Design the sequence.
């Protein structure tokens, strides 16, 4: 395949994590190329969330590491990884719920310009930041809701806002942890459109249960089961793969 | 001045040598706190303080572990137990009746507190819990001041335990303090049985680690919380009742020991009764040992009267230093209960 | 708020109210003199000092979401630094003889920065350990460290132990001795005003946005790359330093320091002031300090058992009026 020749933007190498006697993730390796959408799927309890947590830095792996653009980021904190360009949306939306929509985006935009240790000028009056905030709000379709507290937005709007917040940081790599969870049909469709528009510009690692979304967006799919990679390849490869059908459908195959 | 200083330094060095090479039968060294018989005595003193702290810390850590509540008024339960026991003992002349009164008052007060106030605070921020229970302290302290006056009360140990026991030839130790240690160990054993071997204990353990799941299982969570609170109150009341004969029973006694109990809980790991037990003994020993050693070491540096005062206050710091060191190494304490 | 872009009115009623309060405080000394009530001026200065401490605590408690139960450590440290400098200046002995000599001084423009620095350094040490923990843990640890500082100060025989220490005389500001109550009040007033203006700005600046954001959702802030620990440690340090300044002011107005300033009850009272006035409002804690101290003063004049009245009042506030005084005022101003 073509893209195996290119240098991966994000490289996961042998990540392993045990919880007690349970091996949640076992020696998982995968690559994410620039501009690519790489989906990770698998039944519940396959270790997808643990894997995402280890890539983002929230969970410390027992073994293995993560490379971003060739740099080993496996021992860095969550914040340090984020500063190097790892953006993340969560399975359950994480926003500053008392802040307005605008403030949430502002919080993200200001990370791009300078350290947060500025004390004397009102952040919301900095015109350099405001232009970027407005642009991000328009792009997310949330400009009409800009002054509302994030808490009163609908679930779908909060999802949208979280994505806008993460994108406002201009991440190099976007980790999407079940972005369609809890969304209705039309909202999922809209989300898929948004993500499709990002393809080619931002590398995305997508964990998702909604298979329509996965097969529509993913350039490549990796299947996890019981913490291991059981298959990896293009959408067609995966559809045809016997081990995958076994893992999902529990088909017993005679030895 | 310089000659005196030099002499002092040599003196200190000399004592340090003695400290290192303990002489088992050297009479001149009997003033050294590390002299074996004194060491035994100090260790037992440390255990006495340790089991008292454990009785308080066990309740605190359970209440925190199961309900995620910080209860500053836990010290007030201890004070209530002490006053109830002192008053009943004085009236009936029976220490056993006093002890029982302490336990019952502690449990009843705790139950009342839970039903009337704490129950409304489970879902609130920790700040609200701090403030509300702080208000309870103010009310409890003032009420006790009205009922018993601001002067400390002194209670006597029961006559049967008022003597001393000869632990080793020539080494006497107050029987009552030994009884406290025994009672504390019994309470620890009881808790171990309760938490490890009963259905209630199973729910408590489950509540500490998987709060939502216990609720989802349809357990009457309100009753569970009230029972845990009452158990904590009974233990605090017991501690207060046992402390009455060896400490001054006075307003504010609860807060002094409460802060030490917090230190125990923090060192042991929030929610862990086992951690609380080990940490309580550790804190008790650290406190008594530093109290025994520091004045002795300081006497070389300062005039005796000042040395004792300075050392007494500095040795109070030892426990907090211990906490700082433990936290610097293990921010979640020695035996954290939550994953 | 259907039209989201509608700009907020430039002058809000609560802003006017706050400004009115500031003006009232500014003219307090001549007014009290005219009313022949200038004996109240030291009390008012004390209220300002406590207000400064409470507002400083609000930085970590209201904006940072960190319930510090150990702020008495900083209050007492500031007070004792001031007392020690004045005490040694009077005796002509050094405060510290080793490893370098620090001599005493009666100059407030040195004393206050010194109080801020020592309290700030203490706050860095305490914060570095306790900020690694959360929630109940944090509350207990800050409380315990404050208790440790309490015993440390008690252990210095030079400063009077439990009896406390009388200050030899008032300090000087820029070389001029502050002898009477009015200049002392002005001095405290200017400091509090300065703090309020700077803190208000910092809260709305990029730093404040990050600090408030971290209170609401630490996980999100980390995922955005914010150094949350450093942000909080800085808030804790600045708060400790400003509380130290408040302590120095208290020492000067009372001409006396005692370990009581370091006791855990003082920490509790500071929290009460913040919540009573309205957490996360800066002005609220100042009001809270005035109200609580006035309440204490009035109640203790009526009954010896005034805590029995204060306790239930506090309980009611916690259970029913969680926004605090200023919180309710500004809410009314918003909707009305």
Sequence:
């Amino acid at each position: 395949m073509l893209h195996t020749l290119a240098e991966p933007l994000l490289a996961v190498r042998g990540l392993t994590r045990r919880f007690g006697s349970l091996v949640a993730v076992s020696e998982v390796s995968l690559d994410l190329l620039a501009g690519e959408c790489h989906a990770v799927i698998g039944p519940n309890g396959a270790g997808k969330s643990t894997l995402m947590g280890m890539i983002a830095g929230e969970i410390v792996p027992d073994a293995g590491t993560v490379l971003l653009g060739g740099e080993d980021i496996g021992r860095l904190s969550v914040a340090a990884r984020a500063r190097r360009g790892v953006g993340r949306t969560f399975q359950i939306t994480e926003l500053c719920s008392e802040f307005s929509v605008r403030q949430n985006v502002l919080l993200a935009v200001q990370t791009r310009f300078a350290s947060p240790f500025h004390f004397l000028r009102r952040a919301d009056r900095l015109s350099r930041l405001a232009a970027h905030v407005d642009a991000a709000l328009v792009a997310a379709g949330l400009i009409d809701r800009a002054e509302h507290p994030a808490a009163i937005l609908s679930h779908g709007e909060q999802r949208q806002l979280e994505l806008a917040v993460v994108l406002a940081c201009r991440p190099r790599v976007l980790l999407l942890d079940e972005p369609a969870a809890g969304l209705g049909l039309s909202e999922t469709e809209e989300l898929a459109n948004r993500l499709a528009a990002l393809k080619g510009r931002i590398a995305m690692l997508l964990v998702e249960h909604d298979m329509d979304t996965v097969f529509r967006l993913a350039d490549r799919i990796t299947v996890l089961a019981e913490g291991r990679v059981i298959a990896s390849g293009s959408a067609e490869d995966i559809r045809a793969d016997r081990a995958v059908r076994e893992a999902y459908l529990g088909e017993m195959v005679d030895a | 001045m310089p000659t005196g200083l030099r002499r002092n330094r040599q003196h200190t060095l000399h004592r340090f040598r003695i400290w290192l090479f303990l002489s088992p039968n050297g009479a001149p060294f009997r003033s050294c706190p590390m002299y074996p018989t004194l060491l035994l005595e100090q260790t037992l003193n440390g255990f006495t303080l340790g089991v008292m702290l454990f009785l308080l810390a066990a309740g605190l850590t359970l209440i925190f572990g199961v309900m995620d509540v910080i209860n500053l008024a836990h010290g007030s339960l201890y004070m209530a137990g002490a006053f109830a026991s002192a008053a009943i003992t004085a009236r009936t002349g029976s220490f056993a009746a006093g002890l029982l009164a302490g336990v019952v008052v502690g449990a009843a007060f705790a139950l009342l507190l839970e039903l009337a106030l704490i129950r409304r605070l489970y879902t609130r921020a920790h700040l609200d819990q701090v403030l509300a229970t702080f208000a309870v302290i103010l009310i409890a302290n003032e009420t006790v001041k009205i009922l018993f006056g601001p002067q400390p009360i002194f209670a006597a140990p029961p006559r049967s335990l008022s003597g001393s026991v000869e632990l080793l030839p020539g080494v006497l130790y107050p029987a009552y303090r030994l009884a406290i240690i025994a009672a504390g160990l019994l309470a620890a054993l009881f808790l171990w049985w309760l938490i490890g071997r009963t259905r209630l204990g199973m729910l408590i353990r489950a509540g500490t680690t998987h709060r939502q799941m216990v609720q989802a299982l349809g357990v009457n969570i309100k009753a569970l919380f009230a029972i845990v609170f009452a158990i904590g109150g009974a233990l605090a009341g017991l501690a207060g009742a046992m402390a009455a004969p060896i400490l001054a029973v006075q307003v504010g006694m609860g807060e002094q020991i409460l802060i030490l109990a917090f230190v125990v809980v923090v060192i042991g790991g929030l929610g862990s009764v086992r951690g609380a037990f080990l940490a309580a003994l550790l804190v008790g020993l650290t406190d008594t040992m530093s109290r025994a050693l520091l004045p002795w070491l300081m006497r070389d540096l300062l005039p005796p009267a000042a040395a004792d005062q300075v050392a007494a206050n500095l040795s109070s710091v030892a426990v907090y230093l211990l906490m700082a060191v433990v936290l610097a190494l293990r921010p979640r304490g020695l035996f954290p209960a939550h994953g | 708020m259907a039209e989201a872009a509608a700009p907020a009115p430039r002058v809000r009623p609560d802003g006017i109210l706050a400004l009115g309060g500031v003006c009232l405080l500014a003219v307090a000394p001549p007014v009290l003199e005219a009313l022949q009530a200038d004996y109240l001026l030291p009390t008012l200065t004390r209220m300002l000092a406590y207000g400064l401490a409470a507002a400083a605590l609000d930085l970590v408690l209201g904006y940072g979401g960190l319930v510090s139960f150990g702020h008495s450590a900083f209050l007492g440290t500031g007070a004792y630094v001031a007392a020690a400098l004045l005490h040694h200046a009077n005796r002509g002995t050094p405060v510290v003889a080793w490893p370098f000599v620090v001599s005493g001084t009666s100059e407030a423009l040195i004393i206050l920065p010194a109080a801020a620095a020592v309290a700030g350094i203490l706050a860095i040490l305490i914060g570095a350990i306790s900020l690694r923990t959360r929630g109940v843990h944090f509350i207990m640890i800050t409380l315990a460290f404050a208790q440790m500082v309490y015993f440390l100060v008690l252990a210095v025989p030079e400063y009077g132990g439990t009896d406390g220490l009388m200050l030899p005389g008032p300090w000087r500001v820029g070389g001029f001795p502050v002898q009477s109550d009015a200049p002392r009040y002005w001095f405290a007033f200017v400091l509090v005003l300065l703090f309020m203006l700077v803190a208000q700005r910092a809260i709305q600046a990029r730093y404040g946005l990050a600090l408030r954001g971290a209170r609401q959702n630490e996980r999100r802030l980390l995922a955005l790359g914010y150094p949350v620990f450093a942000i909080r440690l800085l808030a804790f340090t600045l708060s400790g330093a400003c509380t130290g300044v408040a302590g120095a002011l208290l020492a000067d107005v009372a001409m006396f320091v005692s370990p009581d300033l370091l006791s855990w009850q003082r920490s509790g009272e500071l929290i009460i002031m913040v919540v009573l006035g309205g957490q996360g409002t800066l002005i609220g804690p100042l009001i809270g300090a005035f109200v609580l101290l006035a309440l204490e003063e009035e109640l203790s004049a009526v009954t010896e058992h005034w805590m029995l009245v204060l306790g239930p009042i506090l309980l009611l506030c916690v259970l029913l009026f969680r926004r605090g005084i200023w919180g309710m005022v500004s809410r009314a101003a918003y909707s009305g």
